[in-house]
Amino acid sequence: MSKEIIITQRLEKNKTLILDQDCLVFEYIQDSVPEKINTEIIVKDNVKVEYIFVLERQEKTFIENREIKLGLNSALQNYYFYLDNNANIHLNTYIDGQAKLQQRVFILGDKKNNIYLQENHNFLYPYSQGDFKLFAIAKEESKIHVDAMVAIKKVAKNTEVAHNQQAWLLSKNARVELTPALEVIPNEVKATHSAKVSNLACEQLFYLQSRGLDKDNIQNLLYQSIFQLVLNKLSNEKYKEELVNIFKQYYVSA
Amino acid sequence: MLLEVKNLSVEINEQEILHDLNLNLEAGTLHVVMGPNGAGKSTLSNVLLGHPNFQIKSGEIFFAQEKINDLSPEQRAYLGLMSLWQAPPEIEGVALEQFLFLAYKNIFAARDKAWKAPSVFEFSELLKKQASILNISPELLKRSLNVGFSGGEKKKIEILQLNLLQPKLAILDETDSGLDIDAMKILAENIKNYQQNKGTVLLITHYPEILEFLQPDFVHVMVKGEIVKSGKKDLLTTIKTSGFSQFI
Amino acid sequence: MSEINSTIKQAWEEKNSAPYLKSSRRGLDESLVREISQSKNEPDWMLDLRLKALALYQAMSKPTWGPDLSKLDLASITYYAKASSSESTWDEVPEDIKNTFTKLGIPQAEQKFLAGVGAQYESTTIYHNLKQQFKDQGVIFEDMDVAVQKYPDLVKEYFMKAVPANLHKFAALHGAVWSGGTFLYIPKDVKIDLPLQAYFRMNAKGMGQFEHTLMIIEDGAQGHYIEGCSAPRYGVDSLHAGCVEIYVKPNARFRYSSVESWSKDAYNLNTKRAMVEKNAHMEWVGGNFGSNVTMLYPCSVLLGEGASADHLGLAFANSGQVQDTGAKVIHLASNTSSNIVMKSLSRGGGQSIYRGLLDIRAKAENVKAQVNCDALLLDSDSKSSTIPEMKIANNTATVAHEARCGKISENEVFYLRSRGLSKEEAETMIVNGFVDPIVRELPLEYAVEMNRMLKLEMEGSVG
Q1: In whole angstroms, what is the distance from residue B242 CA to residue C4 CA?
Q2: Which residue range(s) make up the domain with A174?
Q3: Domain count of chain B?
Q4: In CATH, what number is assigned to the domain containing residue B94?
Q5: Nearest to A157 by CA among A137, A178, A185, A196
Q6: Cβ–Cβ of A192/C403 closer than 8 Å?
Q7: Of B56-70, C99-113, C258-272, C432-446, which range is least confident?
Q8: CA A126, CA B92: separation in Å to the nearest integer?
């Protein structure tokens, strides 16, 4: 049983988390956070971490700078949930040791939310693996802008990276901007990336409606399916359930 | 002796997969190598073909009396060694017909210096004929190698190459896996024809459903990187009834 | 070496003497712009355009996006040189210039294959020819300078409207000193089957080239234009800031193919844009080789409902080169679609960058867009970057983007070798297969030339 670290508040502007043993971190922030927060997470050699971060309903726009450093033979499963916020987020990862990074980012944009996410993942060591997935749902008049860069530096031979972004625009005035960028120097790598923008087009809507589902059912169904995709590699059932419950609040109520 | 494998030990990433393996194949025979998963069967076929990722730690491989340990894959093809792949790769933009023409020319020219290559047109006709025997649509020949081909079509293209390139030894590495009964019959039929035309077959497989249609001359059981038992057809019955556990 | 195999490369290395250069000077100011306009006998409105563009050029700074242009010294470039007066028949063309074109295979090709050819030597057009049948149909295929005189209303209506001078510094520069180029007008419902082509050549030391290509394809018309470029090697920076404007009217179809192979010290900073109207279709097919720095993002603006665009591109970044290329598609109207296929190769420290923009505006309903970028790194010294920007403002859009980057597949090489191909044969076959989707869209001789250029660039990179 790995250690569990539960965090429910973020009051301090700067924070450093040094993880030197296998653990699961569950950070669920509902209260206001400072306007600008800097977080540093260091995963030590040979450590396996599952890191779940949920930030919701921040009224004021906040700026977050997050830096993650991975050590030799470490493994990090990152889950970021940004639910109904105005935010400016900078995520920088440095993989400086043969390591495995799996990242899932889920952004729900609602009302007039404006979310900007900038990601920078740097592979600095050979034989590492990266599996990045982004899921963005933009509702109402929200705007989600993601600039993600995965860079495989010269020394990082035999790195394997898959970088995927998926967005759903659920209303006329929603906007999304995606840039899944890839920079590769060594040629002994496997790097792929993809981006997809989908929607609930007329025909699909009509089909589901003709099977007895109303608009609200359909939206919830979509939410459910997307959320499953986000969580499908999370092994911890307890937290999986907790996350599903947190997200259920955003479903359209019957 | 067409193929002689003597005390072969092979490693990959510093892990030894084949230990002191011995295997001899006389020309014109059909040998079957069977074994549980992880026995090292595909390592064996890869090493015979000269895959660069595998290191021969010790031992020798002789093909038609020539030591081939250090020969490149194409050099082994010239000598008449060919394998029908289980999962042939899809190569975008490489036209199937073009690739086959080059392979054909290289291999036959290597076998006989006096050989004259056919014209593009002549080869195209030859290929069409061979393809129709296997019920391969001519349209497939114009497409990129294996791209978008069904599993069955890919296997047929491998058989087409067997018939076209006429190797001395055909290694079938789990080629029969995933085939329906009709496809298996076609494969068996072509192997029989190949054998009748002085071919030698090394069939490496997990479970030989195909042997309902073929008659092996020798059967070998491979476990954990070595041949632990060799025998004739009757060995198959033993395996069928009691599995591989008796050999471990 | 096998440079000898390529006739065009050989012709490149021809260093024809350039006696006319004495009359030109370096750097750019108002008097030079006036001189250019005057020597062409241009109407006032064109001079006016030039001066306005000059003012913008002087006010703007070099673009910050794209490749590094810090080493480009704009003050040391020669912006205009006139070789000899415009000729009308092949016989009157000066001998050494004729030789160059013979070496480039143009007259022979023209006879057999093409409808007409225009060629540019330095900054004025020497030779222009158009087959009689097209002339009768009302097709205009003319030197840009001549078009300004002969068809002022047409030119005025379209000139620098797709690429306005205020777009960026090099568009402004272009507007000020543009010279020569091709004007193509295809009237309503006229369909031209054979590809039209022009072959550029930058010869003199430190020459800049600013040709303007303006093409108007009227309703229901069809055409195909091929542009090829070359420049011999020189130590001083050569700058190419050309401009291509294409108007594809409703129900028209047009393809613009270019195989650009600039000398290794040139800066190739082009602006190419197509305005595509209702149910019209635009195709860009391009191969980019050579050049020190290339900045090239053909842009399709889908203005009318049902408009569509295809972008097929190949970039090869060899030692010391930066190929910063890509595609831009702007969907302004509904039911439009676009498809981008980009392939890049890098070796010897070359840098290949794909920069794409897919912009779907709010009013554009039911847009379908697809992007496929693949990069092949032929060794461990080179670099490949893919930066695809997707801006989606309409929720009925379907967008898919995919990219892959890596080296030649070991498994594929092994398979081909196990069938008797040598390592070199296998790798070459795979690389050719990689670029095939683009090469197969080019007319035969360009495909052959492209393959030859590829082979040359690949020398020493396989095995």
Answers
A1: 69
A2: 3-200
A3: 1
A4: 3.40.50.300
A5: A185
A6: yes
A7: C99-113
A8: 28
- Verify whether the Cβ–Cβ distance B74 to C412 is below 8 Å: no
pLDDT tens digit sequence for C86-143: 334 445 444 544 554 455 555 544 433 333 444 443 334 433 445 566 778 898 888 8
Q: What share of chain C is helix, strand, coil (3-state, %, to 5)?
A: 30, 35, 35
d(CA B184, CA B161) in angstroms, rounded, equals: 17
Residue to mutate among C392, C404, C410, C430, with most A CBs inside 10 A, is C392
Residue (of B18, B13, B16, B9) closest to B204 by Cα position: B18
Rounded alpha-carbon distances, angstroms, from residue C219 to B150, C71, C155, C225, C246: 43, 45, 18, 17, 13
In the predicted model, what is the mean pLDDT of chain A? Answer: 88
**DSSP letter at B27?**
T
CB C175 within 8 A of CB C271: no
| Domain map (residue ranges) of chain C | 2-296, 410-463
Structural domain count of chain A: 1
Whether residue A40 lies inside any domain: the answer is: yes
- To the nearest whole Å, the CA of C315 is away from the closest chain B CA by 17
B92 contacts C422? CB cut-off 8 A: no
- Answer whether C248 touches A (CB < 8 Å): no
The answer to ipTM > 0.90 is no
d(CA A196, CA A164): 8
Amino acid at site B45: S
- Do C412 and B89 form a contact (C-beta atoms < 8 A)? yes
Q: Mark yes or no for CB contact A195/C401 under 8 Å.
A: yes
| CA distance to partner chain B, nearest, from residue C394 (Å) | 33
B 106-165 residues inside an 8 A Cβ radius of C: 106-107, 110, 144-145, 161, 165
Q: What is the mean pLDDT of residues C41-65?
A: 90
User: Looking at the complex, does the CB of residue C357 fall below 8 Å from at least one CB of chain A?
Assistant: no
Q: Which two tokens stand for residue B93?
A: 């933009």
User: Min CA distance, A168 vs chain C (Å)?
Assistant: 8
What amino acid is encoded at B136 in this protein? I
For A170, name the nearest residue in chain C, comparing CA atoms only.
Answer: C395
| Res C293: pLDDT | 79
Nearest to C239 by CA among C79, C429, C40: C79
**Is B74 in the C-facing interface, judged by CB distances under 8 Å?**
yes
Residue B204 has pLDDT above 60, yes or no: yes
The residue segments making up the domain with residue B184 are 3-247
The tokens describing A235, both together, are 């092994």
Question: Cα separation of A120 and C20, whole Å?
Answer: 53
